[in-house]
Protein backbone atom coordinates (compact mmCIF):
# COMPACT_ATOMS: atom_id res chain seq x y z
CA UNK A 1 0.00 0.00 0.00
CA UNK A 2 1.25 3.46 -0.83
CA UNK A 3 1.86 5.62 2.22
CA UNK A 4 0.46 9.12 2.10
CA UNK A 5 2.50 11.62 4.08
CA UNK A 6 1.78 15.28 4.76
CA UNK A 7 4.20 18.07 4.00
CA UNK A 8 5.87 19.48 7.13
CA UNK A 9 7.30 22.44 5.21
CA UNK A 10 6.04 25.93 4.58
CA UNK A 11 5.10 24.82 1.04
CA UNK A 12 6.67 27.81 -0.60
CA UNK A 13 6.54 27.50 -4.37
CA UNK A 14 8.20 24.29 -5.58
CA UNK A 15 9.51 25.89 -8.75
CA UNK A 16 12.69 27.88 -8.43
CA UNK A 17 12.19 31.55 -9.03
CA UNK A 18 14.30 32.89 -11.90
CA UNK A 19 16.41 35.90 -10.97
CA UNK A 20 15.79 39.15 -12.82
CA UNK A 21 17.85 39.66 -15.96
CA UNK A 22 21.08 41.52 -15.28
CA UNK A 23 21.37 44.97 -16.90
CA UNK A 24 23.90 45.25 -19.75
CA UNK A 25 25.05 48.60 -18.44
CA UNK A 26 24.63 50.65 -15.26
CA UNK A 27 24.36 53.91 -17.17
CA UNK A 28 21.28 55.81 -16.16
CA UNK A 29 20.35 53.33 -13.41
CA UNK A 30 20.06 54.06 -9.70
CA UNK A 31 22.24 51.82 -7.59
CA UNK A 32 21.25 51.09 -3.99
CA UNK A 33 23.93 50.17 -1.47
CA UNK A 34 22.47 48.34 1.55
CA UNK A 35 24.50 48.21 4.74
CA UNK A 36 23.14 45.43 6.99
CA UNK A 37 24.85 46.99 10.05
CA UNK A 38 27.60 44.42 10.35
CA UNK A 39 30.98 45.58 11.46
CA UNK A 40 32.98 47.37 8.72
CA UNK A 41 30.36 46.78 6.06
CA UNK A 42 30.25 50.57 5.76
CA UNK A 43 33.97 50.70 4.91
CA UNK A 44 33.44 48.42 1.94
CA UNK A 45 30.29 50.21 0.78
CA UNK A 46 31.92 53.65 1.19
CA UNK A 47 34.63 52.53 -1.21
CA UNK A 48 32.12 51.15 -3.66
CA UNK A 49 30.11 54.37 -3.42
CA UNK A 50 33.25 56.35 -4.24
CA UNK A 51 34.06 54.20 -7.30
CA UNK A 52 30.52 54.22 -8.68
CA UNK A 53 30.03 57.95 -8.10
CA UNK A 54 33.33 58.65 -9.88
CA UNK A 55 31.79 56.96 -12.91
CA UNK A 56 28.95 59.49 -12.74
CA UNK A 57 26.42 56.93 -11.59
CA UNK A 58 23.57 57.62 -9.16
CA UNK A 59 24.05 55.91 -5.81
CA UNK A 60 21.60 55.72 -2.89
CA UNK A 61 22.62 54.49 0.55
CA UNK A 62 20.47 52.33 2.85
CA UNK A 63 21.03 50.74 6.23
CA UNK A 64 19.23 48.02 8.15
CA UNK A 65 18.79 48.80 11.89
CA UNK A 66 20.44 45.49 12.80
CA UNK A 67 21.84 42.53 10.92
CA UNK A 68 20.09 40.14 13.30
CA UNK A 69 16.60 40.73 11.98
CA UNK A 70 14.99 40.89 8.55
CA UNK A 71 14.90 44.31 6.94
CA UNK A 72 11.80 46.34 7.86
CA UNK A 73 9.15 46.23 5.16
CA UNK A 74 9.32 50.02 4.73
CA UNK A 75 13.05 49.81 3.96
CA UNK A 76 12.50 47.03 1.41
CA UNK A 77 9.76 49.03 -0.25
CA UNK A 78 11.93 52.16 -0.32
CA UNK A 79 14.74 50.27 -2.08
CA UNK A 80 12.36 48.53 -4.48
CA UNK A 81 10.70 51.85 -5.32
CA UNK A 82 13.83 53.93 -5.81
CA UNK A 83 16.59 51.64 -7.12
CA UNK A 84 17.17 49.65 -10.26
CA UNK A 85 19.89 47.45 -8.82
CA UNK A 86 21.09 46.88 -5.27
CA UNK A 87 24.33 45.76 -3.69
CA UNK A 88 23.91 44.21 -0.23
CA UNK A 89 26.93 43.93 2.03
CA UNK A 90 26.80 40.54 3.79
CA UNK A 91 29.14 39.09 6.42
CA UNK A 92 31.97 40.75 8.32
CA UNK B 1 -25.06 7.31 5.57
CA UNK B 2 -28.74 7.71 6.39
CA UNK B 3 -29.64 7.03 10.02
CA UNK B 4 -32.76 4.80 10.00
CA UNK B 5 -35.88 5.71 11.96
CA UNK B 6 -37.11 3.53 14.80
CA UNK B 7 -34.91 1.27 16.89
CA UNK B 8 -31.23 0.63 16.24
CA UNK B 9 -29.18 -2.05 17.93
CA UNK B 10 -25.41 -2.36 17.55
CA UNK B 11 -23.84 -5.69 18.53
CA UNK B 12 -20.85 -7.94 18.02
CA UNK B 13 -20.57 -11.71 18.34
CA UNK B 14 -17.45 -11.44 20.47
CA UNK B 15 -19.46 -10.10 23.41
CA UNK B 16 -21.29 -12.39 25.85
CA UNK B 17 -23.90 -9.73 26.59
CA UNK B 18 -24.68 -9.40 22.87
CA UNK B 19 -25.07 -13.17 22.70
CA UNK B 20 -27.39 -12.91 25.70
CA UNK B 21 -29.64 -10.27 24.09
CA UNK B 22 -29.72 -11.94 20.67
CA UNK B 23 -33.12 -13.59 21.36
CA UNK B 24 -34.42 -10.26 22.68
CA UNK B 25 -33.62 -8.61 19.34
CA UNK B 26 -35.55 -11.40 17.64
CA UNK B 27 -38.53 -10.67 19.91
CA UNK B 28 -38.41 -6.97 19.08
CA UNK B 29 -38.33 -7.74 15.35
CA UNK B 30 -41.21 -10.21 15.70
CA UNK B 31 -43.29 -7.57 17.48
CA UNK B 32 -43.35 -5.59 14.24
CA UNK B 33 -41.29 -2.69 15.59
CA UNK B 34 -38.94 -0.98 13.12
CA UNK B 35 -35.56 -2.41 14.12
CA UNK B 36 -32.20 -2.08 12.41
CA UNK B 37 -29.39 -4.25 13.71
CA UNK B 38 -25.77 -3.39 12.96
CA UNK B 39 -23.15 -6.04 13.62
CA UNK B 40 -19.49 -5.14 14.02
CA UNK B 41 -17.81 -8.52 13.47
CA UNK B 42 -19.85 -11.53 12.16
CA UNK B 43 -22.65 -10.49 9.76
CA UNK B 44 -24.54 -13.77 10.31
CA UNK B 45 -24.43 -13.53 14.08
CA UNK B 46 -27.75 -11.79 14.82
CA UNK B 47 -30.79 -14.07 14.93
CA UNK B 48 -32.94 -11.35 13.36
CA UNK B 49 -33.99 -11.69 9.73
CA UNK B 50 -32.42 -8.37 8.98
CA UNK B 51 -28.89 -7.37 10.06
CA UNK B 52 -26.48 -4.89 8.47
CA UNK B 53 -22.80 -5.70 8.14
CA UNK B 54 -20.92 -2.89 9.90
CA UNK B 55 -17.43 -4.32 9.74
CA UNK B 56 -16.42 -1.00 8.21
CA UNK B 57 -17.63 0.48 11.54
CA UNK B 58 -19.08 3.49 9.73
CA UNK B 59 -22.48 3.20 11.41
CA UNK B 60 -20.82 2.53 14.77
CA UNK B 61 -18.68 5.64 14.30
CA UNK B 62 -21.56 7.86 13.24
CA UNK B 63 -23.74 6.60 16.06
CA UNK B 64 -20.91 7.14 18.60
CA UNK B 65 -21.05 3.54 19.80
CA UNK B 66 -18.62 3.04 22.69
CA UNK B 67 -20.19 -0.12 24.13
CA UNK B 68 -22.07 -3.07 22.67
CA UNK B 69 -24.88 -3.87 22.82
CA UNK B 70 -26.31 -0.36 22.44
CA UNK B 71 -29.99 0.18 21.76
CA UNK B 72 -31.03 3.56 20.32
CA UNK B 73 -34.39 5.07 19.51
CA UNK B 74 -34.48 7.49 16.56
CA UNK B 75 -37.50 9.78 16.15
CA UNK B 76 -37.68 12.32 13.36
CA UNK B 77 -34.05 11.80 12.52
CA UNK B 78 -32.96 12.56 16.10
CA UNK B 79 -31.86 10.33 18.89
CA UNK B 80 -34.64 10.12 21.48
CA UNK B 81 -33.21 7.51 23.84
CA UNK B 82 -30.22 5.19 24.30
CA UNK B 83 -29.43 2.17 26.49
CA UNK B 84 -25.94 0.77 26.85
CA UNK B 85 -25.41 -2.88 27.84
CA UNK B 86 -28.34 -5.02 29.02
CA UNK B 87 -30.55 -3.23 31.53
CA UNK B 88 -33.91 -4.99 31.42
CA UNK B 89 -36.09 -2.18 32.72
CA UNK B 90 -34.46 0.37 30.44
CA UNK B 91 -34.80 -1.86 27.38
CA UNK B 92 -38.46 -2.34 28.25
CA UNK B 93 -39.00 1.40 28.70
CA UNK B 94 -37.23 2.24 25.45
CA UNK B 95 -39.11 -0.36 23.38
CA UNK B 96 -42.43 -0.09 25.22
CA UNK B 97 -42.48 -3.93 25.43
CA UNK B 98 -43.45 -4.86 29.01
CA UNK B 99 -42.33 -8.51 29.00
CA UNK B 100 -39.07 -8.11 27.13
CA UNK B 101 -36.26 -10.41 28.25
CA UNK B 102 -38.27 -12.07 31.00
CA UNK B 103 -35.90 -15.02 31.24
CA UNK B 104 -32.72 -12.91 31.26
CA UNK B 105 -30.94 -11.49 34.29
CA UNK B 106 -31.79 -7.94 35.31
CA UNK B 107 -28.44 -6.49 34.31
CA UNK B 108 -25.33 -7.37 32.35
CA UNK B 109 -22.67 -4.82 31.37
CA UNK B 110 -21.73 -4.54 27.71
CA UNK B 111 -18.36 -4.90 26.00
CA UNK B 112 -16.13 -2.38 24.28
CA UNK B 113 -17.18 -1.27 20.79
CA UNK B 114 -14.70 -2.08 18.04
CA UNK B 115 -15.10 1.51 16.87
CA UNK B 116 -13.24 2.89 19.88
CA UNK B 117 -10.33 0.48 19.92
CA UNK B 118 -6.97 2.24 20.08
CA UNK B 119 -5.78 2.85 16.56
CA UNK B 120 -9.23 2.25 15.04
CA UNK B 121 -10.87 5.39 16.37
CA UNK B 122 -8.35 7.60 14.55
CA UNK B 123 -8.88 5.75 11.27
CA UNK B 124 -12.65 6.11 11.51
CA UNK B 125 -12.40 9.79 12.37
CA UNK B 126 -10.22 10.34 9.31
CA UNK B 127 -12.45 8.25 7.04
CA UNK B 128 -15.90 9.37 8.18
CA UNK B 129 -15.37 12.50 10.30
CA UNK B 130 -14.98 16.17 9.46
CA UNK B 131 -11.25 16.22 10.17
CA UNK B 132 -9.15 17.39 7.23
CA UNK B 133 -5.43 18.03 6.96
CA UNK B 134 -4.66 21.20 5.01
CA UNK B 135 -1.02 20.41 4.23
CA UNK B 136 -0.33 18.93 0.84
CA UNK B 137 -0.29 15.18 0.42
CA UNK B 138 2.78 13.38 -0.82
CA UNK B 139 2.60 9.76 -1.91
CA UNK B 140 5.62 7.68 -1.03
CA UNK B 141 6.57 5.87 -4.26
CA UNK B 142 5.81 2.15 -4.41
CA UNK B 143 8.56 -0.01 -2.89
CA UNK B 144 10.13 3.04 -1.25
CA UNK B 145 10.77 3.24 2.47
CA UNK B 146 8.83 6.03 4.16
CA UNK B 147 11.68 7.01 6.45
CA UNK B 148 14.11 7.16 3.53
CA UNK B 149 11.58 9.22 1.62
CA UNK B 150 11.51 11.74 4.48
CA UNK B 151 15.32 11.99 4.26
CA UNK B 152 15.11 12.54 0.51
CA UNK B 153 12.58 15.32 0.95
CA UNK B 154 15.04 17.10 3.22
CA UNK B 155 12.80 16.94 6.30
CA UNK B 156 15.37 15.36 8.61
CA UNK B 157 18.00 16.86 10.89
CA UNK B 158 20.23 13.90 10.04
CA UNK B 159 18.51 11.32 12.23
CA UNK B 160 15.52 9.24 11.14
CA UNK B 161 12.14 10.94 11.52
CA UNK B 162 8.73 9.40 12.12
CA UNK B 163 6.78 9.55 8.83
CA UNK B 164 3.92 12.05 9.20
CA UNK B 165 0.86 9.96 8.36
CA UNK B 166 -2.69 11.23 8.73
CA UNK B 167 -3.34 9.12 11.83
CA UNK B 168 -0.24 10.37 13.61
CA UNK B 169 -1.03 13.99 12.76
CA UNK B 170 -4.63 13.50 13.90
CA UNK B 171 -3.52 12.12 17.26
CA UNK B 172 -1.09 15.03 17.71
CA UNK B 173 -3.74 17.63 16.91
CA UNK B 174 -6.22 15.93 19.25
CA UNK B 175 -3.83 16.72 22.11
CA UNK B 176 -4.62 20.43 21.92
CA UNK B 177 -7.82 22.43 21.92
CA UNK B 178 -6.25 24.86 19.47
CA UNK B 179 -7.48 24.95 15.88
CA UNK B 180 -5.13 23.40 13.29
CA UNK B 181 -5.24 26.56 11.18
CA UNK B 182 -4.31 28.91 14.03
CA UNK B 183 -1.17 30.86 13.13
CA UNK B 184 1.38 31.01 15.95
CA UNK B 185 3.56 33.50 14.12
CA UNK B 186 5.82 33.72 11.10
CA UNK B 187 8.68 31.26 11.06
CA UNK B 188 12.05 32.57 9.93
CA UNK B 189 13.96 32.69 7.74
CA UNK B 190 11.24 32.43 5.07
CA UNK B 191 8.67 34.04 7.39
CA UNK B 192 6.13 31.34 6.54
CA UNK B 193 2.86 31.23 8.48
CA UNK B 194 3.51 28.78 11.30
CA UNK B 195 0.22 26.99 11.93
CA UNK B 196 -0.67 24.57 14.71
CA UNK B 197 -1.04 21.88 12.02
CA UNK B 198 2.46 22.45 10.64
CA UNK B 199 3.90 22.28 14.15
CA UNK B 200 1.95 19.05 14.72
CA UNK B 201 3.47 17.49 11.61
CA UNK B 202 6.94 18.44 12.78
CA UNK B 203 6.19 17.08 16.26
CA UNK B 204 5.31 13.78 14.58
CA UNK B 205 8.60 13.87 12.66
CA UNK B 206 10.46 14.52 15.92
CA UNK B 207 8.93 11.47 17.62
CA UNK B 208 6.79 13.34 20.16
CA UNK B 209 3.97 11.62 21.98
CA UNK B 210 0.71 13.57 21.52
CA UNK B 211 0.73 14.60 25.18
CA UNK B 212 3.97 16.52 24.58
CA UNK B 213 2.32 18.67 21.94
CA UNK B 214 1.10 21.53 24.19
CA UNK B 215 4.68 21.94 25.43
CA UNK B 216 5.95 21.99 21.83
CA UNK B 217 3.38 24.65 20.91
CA UNK B 218 4.41 26.79 23.88
CA UNK B 219 8.07 26.44 22.91
CA UNK B 220 7.40 27.42 19.30
CA UNK B 221 5.33 30.39 20.42
CA UNK B 222 8.07 31.51 22.78
CA UNK B 223 10.70 31.14 20.06
CA UNK B 224 8.59 33.19 17.64
CA UNK B 225 8.31 36.10 20.09
CA UNK B 226 10.30 38.94 18.48
CA UNK B 227 12.22 39.35 21.74
CA UNK B 228 13.82 35.93 21.17
CA UNK B 229 15.07 36.97 17.72
CA UNK B 230 14.92 33.48 16.25
CA UNK B 231 15.90 34.77 12.82
CA UNK B 232 19.24 36.09 13.99
CA UNK B 233 19.84 33.11 16.28
CA UNK B 234 19.32 30.79 13.33
CA UNK B 235 21.48 32.76 10.94
CA UNK B 236 24.40 33.58 13.24
CA UNK B 237 27.89 32.18 12.68
CA UNK B 238 28.04 31.65 16.47
CA UNK B 239 27.42 28.22 18.08
CA UNK B 240 24.03 28.88 19.63
CA UNK B 241 20.66 27.33 19.01
CA UNK B 242 17.42 27.43 21.00
CA UNK B 243 17.25 25.72 24.40
CA UNK B 244 14.01 24.97 26.27
CA UNK B 245 13.75 24.77 30.07
CA UNK B 246 10.50 23.24 31.36
CA UNK B 247 8.89 24.03 34.72
CA UNK B 248 5.77 23.01 36.59
CA UNK B 249 3.54 19.94 36.91
CA UNK B 250 3.97 19.01 33.25
CA UNK B 251 7.53 17.84 34.04
CA UNK B 252 6.18 14.88 36.01
CA UNK B 253 3.14 14.36 33.81
CA UNK B 254 5.36 13.89 30.75
CA UNK B 255 8.02 11.92 32.60
CA UNK B 256 10.72 14.47 31.87
CA UNK B 257 14.25 14.31 33.22
CA UNK B 258 15.78 16.85 35.60
CA UNK B 259 18.11 14.36 37.34
CA UNK B 260 21.04 12.26 36.13
CA UNK B 261 22.29 12.99 32.60
CA UNK B 262 19.78 15.83 32.48
CA UNK B 263 21.51 17.54 29.56
CA UNK B 264 22.16 14.28 27.75
CA UNK B 265 20.33 11.57 25.87
CA UNK B 266 17.81 8.98 26.95
CA UNK B 267 14.55 10.72 27.85
CA UNK B 268 11.94 10.80 25.13
CA UNK B 269 10.16 13.99 26.25
CA UNK B 270 13.39 15.96 26.72
CA UNK B 271 14.76 14.74 23.41
CA UNK B 272 11.74 15.11 21.19
CA UNK B 273 10.27 18.39 22.48
CA UNK B 274 13.58 20.08 21.77
CA UNK B 275 13.88 18.34 18.44
CA UNK B 276 10.36 19.34 17.39
CA UNK B 277 11.23 23.02 17.78
CA UNK B 278 14.36 22.64 15.67
CA UNK B 279 12.55 20.62 12.98
CA UNK B 280 9.85 23.32 12.86
CA UNK B 281 12.54 25.91 12.18
CA UNK B 282 14.10 23.68 9.53
CA UNK B 283 10.94 22.68 7.73
CA UNK B 284 8.40 25.44 8.29
CA UNK B 285 10.90 28.27 8.14
CA UNK B 286 13.39 26.63 5.77
CA UNK B 287 16.30 27.27 8.14
CA UNK B 288 18.98 24.76 7.20
CA UNK B 289 22.69 24.44 8.04
CA UNK B 290 25.09 25.81 5.45
CA UNK B 291 22.21 27.77 4.02
CA UNK B 292 20.55 30.38 6.25
CA UNK B 293 21.97 28.65 9.32
CA UNK B 294 25.53 29.95 8.93
CA UNK B 295 26.91 28.59 12.21
CA UNK B 296 30.66 28.00 11.99
CA UNK B 297 30.50 25.04 14.37
CA UNK B 298 27.01 24.56 15.78
CA UNK B 299 26.84 22.10 18.67
CA UNK B 300 25.18 18.73 19.36
CA UNK B 301 22.29 20.38 21.20
CA UNK B 302 21.10 21.89 17.93
CA UNK B 303 19.46 18.51 17.28
CA UNK B 304 17.25 19.53 20.16
CA UNK B 305 18.00 20.99 23.59
CA UNK B 306 15.35 20.67 26.25
CA UNK B 307 15.39 19.76 29.91
CA UNK B 308 13.30 20.17 33.04
CA UNK B 309 14.27 22.00 36.21
CA UNK B 310 14.60 20.23 39.57
CA UNK B 311 11.94 22.05 41.58
CA UNK B 312 12.50 20.09 44.79
CA UNK B 313 14.94 22.65 46.20
CA UNK B 314 14.62 25.68 48.53
CA UNK B 315 15.16 28.04 45.57
CA UNK B 316 12.47 29.68 43.51
CA UNK B 317 11.99 28.05 40.14
CA UNK B 318 12.88 29.65 36.84
CA UNK B 319 9.17 30.01 36.00
CA UNK B 320 8.52 31.67 39.38
CA UNK B 321 11.31 34.14 38.73
CA UNK B 322 9.62 34.92 35.44
CA UNK B 323 6.25 35.65 37.02
CA UNK B 324 4.41 32.33 37.08
CA UNK B 325 3.40 30.10 39.99
CA UNK B 326 4.60 26.61 40.77
CA UNK B 327 1.15 25.33 39.81
CA UNK B 328 1.61 26.58 36.26
CA UNK B 329 3.55 24.66 33.62
CA UNK B 330 5.80 26.70 31.40
CA UNK B 331 8.64 26.69 28.94
CA UNK B 332 11.42 29.25 28.80
CA UNK B 333 13.56 29.49 25.69
CA UNK B 334 17.17 30.65 25.77
CA UNK B 335 19.87 30.89 23.16
CA UNK B 336 22.41 28.24 24.09
CA UNK B 337 25.79 26.81 23.19
CA UNK B 338 26.87 23.44 24.46
CA UNK B 339 27.38 23.06 28.22
CA UNK B 340 30.74 23.54 29.90
CA UNK B 341 31.51 21.74 33.16
CA UNK B 342 32.66 23.44 36.32
CA UNK B 343 34.15 21.03 38.85
CA UNK B 344 34.60 22.01 42.48
CA UNK B 345 34.72 19.09 44.87
CA UNK B 346 36.27 20.98 47.75
CA UNK B 347 34.28 24.13 48.46
CA UNK B 348 32.00 23.83 51.48
CA UNK B 349 31.03 27.48 51.70
CA UNK B 350 28.99 29.47 49.18
CA UNK B 351 31.71 32.10 48.99
CA UNK B 352 34.28 29.52 47.91
CA UNK B 353 31.88 27.97 45.42
CA UNK B 354 31.08 31.39 43.93
CA UNK B 355 34.81 31.93 43.50
CA UNK B 356 35.03 28.67 41.49
CA UNK B 357 31.98 29.26 39.35
CA UNK B 358 32.97 32.87 38.68
CA UNK B 359 36.40 31.79 37.54
CA UNK B 360 34.85 29.48 34.97
CA UNK B 361 32.39 32.16 33.89
CA UNK B 362 34.96 34.91 33.43
CA UNK B 363 36.60 33.12 30.52
CA UNK B 364 33.44 32.65 28.47
CA UNK B 365 33.50 33.81 24.84
CA UNK B 366 36.92 35.35 25.31
CA UNK B 367 39.07 36.04 28.38
CA UNK B 368 38.97 39.81 27.77
CA UNK B 369 35.43 40.12 26.51
CA UNK B 370 32.86 41.79 28.70
CA UNK B 371 29.15 42.22 28.07
CA UNK B 372 29.21 39.30 25.62
CA UNK B 373 26.79 36.40 25.87
CA UNK B 374 24.36 35.77 28.72
CA UNK B 375 24.79 32.45 30.51
CA UNK B 376 22.59 29.87 32.19
CA UNK B 377 24.28 28.14 35.11
CA UNK B 378 22.78 24.76 35.94
CA UNK B 379 23.61 24.22 39.60
CA UNK B 380 23.99 20.51 40.33
CA UNK B 381 22.47 19.04 43.50
CA UNK B 382 25.77 18.76 45.37
CA UNK B 383 26.68 22.36 44.60
CA UNK B 384 23.13 23.44 45.36
CA UNK B 385 23.43 21.81 48.78
CA UNK B 386 26.34 24.13 49.64
CA UNK B 387 24.17 27.18 48.96
CA UNK B 388 21.11 25.68 50.67
CA UNK B 389 22.92 24.70 53.86
CA UNK B 390 24.27 28.24 54.21
CA UNK B 391 20.81 29.70 53.64
CA UNK B 392 21.71 31.41 50.35
CA UNK B 393 18.81 32.13 48.05
CA UNK B 394 19.08 32.10 44.29
CA UNK B 395 19.13 35.90 44.35
CA UNK B 396 22.04 35.81 46.81
CA UNK B 397 24.03 33.43 44.62
CA UNK B 398 23.25 35.35 41.43
CA UNK B 399 24.29 38.68 42.93
CA UNK B 400 27.52 37.17 44.26
CA UNK B 401 28.33 35.70 40.85
CA UNK B 402 27.75 39.03 39.12
CA UNK B 403 30.12 40.70 41.58
CA UNK B 404 32.75 37.98 41.31
CA UNK B 405 32.77 37.84 37.52
CA UNK B 406 33.85 41.46 37.03
CA UNK B 407 37.09 41.62 35.11
CA UNK B 408 39.82 44.10 34.49
CA UNK B 409 39.68 45.74 31.13
CA UNK B 410 37.53 47.86 28.92
CA UNK B 411 34.82 46.89 26.53
CA UNK B 412 36.99 46.19 23.53
CA UNK B 413 37.10 42.44 23.72
CA UNK B 414 38.94 39.77 21.81
CA UNK B 415 42.40 40.58 23.09
CA UNK B 416 42.45 44.21 22.08
CA UNK B 417 41.65 45.27 25.64
CA UNK B 418 45.23 44.42 26.54
CA UNK B 419 46.52 46.71 23.84
CA UNK B 420 50.13 46.67 22.75
CA UNK B 421 51.39 46.06 26.31
CA UNK B 422 49.49 42.82 26.66
CA UNK B 423 48.23 44.10 30.04
CA UNK B 424 44.56 44.59 30.92
CA UNK B 425 43.26 48.09 31.56
CA UNK B 426 42.58 49.44 35.02
CA UNK B 427 39.32 49.09 36.87
CA UNK B 428 36.71 46.36 36.99
CA UNK B 429 33.92 45.96 34.47
CA UNK B 430 30.92 43.66 34.66
CA UNK B 431 31.41 40.48 32.61
CA UNK B 432 27.63 39.99 32.35
CA UNK B 433 24.83 42.50 31.85
CA UNK B 434 22.21 42.86 34.58
CA UNK B 435 19.96 39.82 34.34
CA UNK B 436 22.49 38.10 32.12
CA UNK B 437 23.12 35.25 34.56
CA UNK B 438 20.30 32.76 35.03
CA UNK B 439 20.64 30.04 37.66
CA UNK B 440 18.56 26.87 37.46
CA UNK B 441 18.73 23.61 39.43
CA UNK B 442 19.09 20.18 37.83
CA UNK B 443 21.38 17.17 37.60
CA UNK B 444 22.14 13.82 39.17
CA UNK B 445 22.76 13.35 42.89
CA UNK B 446 26.47 12.51 42.69
CA UNK B 447 29.15 14.94 41.49
CA UNK B 448 30.13 18.35 42.84
CA UNK B 449 29.69 19.91 39.43
CA UNK B 450 27.67 22.58 37.73
CA UNK B 451 27.09 23.22 34.05
CA UNK B 452 27.58 26.58 32.35
CA UNK B 453 25.56 27.14 29.19
CA UNK B 454 26.55 30.34 27.39
CA UNK B 455 24.23 31.93 24.87
CA UNK B 456 24.43 33.90 21.67
CA UNK B 457 26.86 36.83 21.60
CA UNK B 458 24.17 39.23 20.42
CA UNK B 459 21.62 39.78 23.16
CA UNK B 460 19.07 42.27 24.37
CA UNK B 461 17.39 44.75 22.08
CA UNK B 462 19.53 43.97 19.06
CA UNK B 463 19.63 40.24 19.69
CA UNK B 464 18.02 37.66 21.92
CA UNK B 465 16.31 37.65 25.30
CA UNK B 466 14.83 34.63 27.08
CA UNK B 467 11.07 34.23 26.62
CA UNK B 468 8.64 32.32 28.86
CA UNK B 469 5.26 30.90 27.83
CA UNK B 470 2.75 29.02 29.90
CA UNK B 471 1.85 25.59 28.55
CA UNK B 472 -1.88 25.39 27.85
CA UNK B 473 -3.92 22.48 26.54
Question: How would you explain this protein's 3D organization?
Answer:
Chain A has 92 residues and is α/β, with parallel strands linked by helices. Chain A has a domain of 55 residues. Chain A contains 2 helices and 4 strands. Chain A has a 3-stranded parallel β-sheet with strand order 3-2-4, with helices on both faces. In chain A, strand 2, helix 1 and strand 3 form a beta-alpha-beta unit. Chain A starts with a strand and ends with a strand. The mean pLDDT of chain A is 88. The two termini of chain B are 33 Å apart. The mean pLDDT of chain B is 94. Chain B is 29% helix and 19% strand. Chain B folds into 3 domains: 123 residues, Glutaredoxin; 207 residues, no CATH class; 117 residues, no CATH class. In chain B, the strands form 7 sheets. Chain B has a 5-stranded mixed β-sheet with strand order 3-2-1-5-6, with helices on one face. The interface between A and B is medium-sized, with 16 and 43 residues.
Tally of separate helices of chain B = 15
> What would you report as the Rg of chain B, rounded to the nearest angstrom?
30 Å
Query: Could you estimate the helical fraction of the residues of chain B in percent?
Result: 25-40%
Number of strands of chain B: 22
Descriptive terms for the model:
heterodimer; A: 92 residues; alpha/beta; B: 473 residues; Glutaredoxin; four-stranded mixed β-sheet; 15 helices; 19% strand; elongated
Short recap of the structure:
Chain A has about 90 residues and is α/β, with parallel strands linked by helices.
Secondary-structure map with pairings?
The complex is a heterodimer of chains A (92) and B (473).
Chain A (H helix, E strand, L loop, with lengths): L3 E3 L23 E6 L5 H14 L3 E6 L9 H10 L2 E5 L3
Parallel strand pairs in A: 2-3, 2-4
Chain B lengths: L5 E6 L4 H15 L4 E5 L12 E2 L4 H5 L4 E2 L1 E6 L2 E7 L1 E2 H8 L11 E2 L2 E2 L7 H9 L8 E3 L6 H7 L13 H9 L8 E5 L4 E4 H11 L6 H12 L5 H6 L5 E7 L2 H4 L14 H16 L22 E3 L9 H4 L8 E7 L3 E4 L6 H13 L12 E5 L1 H9 L4 H11 L2 E2 L19 E2 L7 E5 L7 E6 L12 E4 L3
Parallel strand pairs in B: 1-2, 2-3, 13-14, 17-20
Antiparallel strand pairs in B: 1-5, 4-9, 5-6, 7-8, 11-12, 13-15, 15-22, 16-21, 17-21, 18-19
Amino acid sequence: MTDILYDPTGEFAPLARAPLAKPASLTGLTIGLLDISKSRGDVFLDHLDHLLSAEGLTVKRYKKPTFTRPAPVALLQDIASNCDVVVEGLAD
Amino acid sequence: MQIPEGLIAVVKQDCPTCVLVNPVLKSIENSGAALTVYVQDQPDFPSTRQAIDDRSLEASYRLHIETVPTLIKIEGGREAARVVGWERDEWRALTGMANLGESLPQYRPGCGSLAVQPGIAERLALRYGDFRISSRELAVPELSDSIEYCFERGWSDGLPVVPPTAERIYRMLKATARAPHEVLGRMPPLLTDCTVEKVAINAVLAGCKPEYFPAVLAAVEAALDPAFCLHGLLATTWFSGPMIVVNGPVRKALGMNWAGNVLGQGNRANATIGRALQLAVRNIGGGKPQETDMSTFGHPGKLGFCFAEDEDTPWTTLAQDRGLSRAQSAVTVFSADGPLGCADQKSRTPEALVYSLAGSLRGLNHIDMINGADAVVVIGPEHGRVFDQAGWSKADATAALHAATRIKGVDLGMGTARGASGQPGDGLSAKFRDGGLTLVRAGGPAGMFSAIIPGWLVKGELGTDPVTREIRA
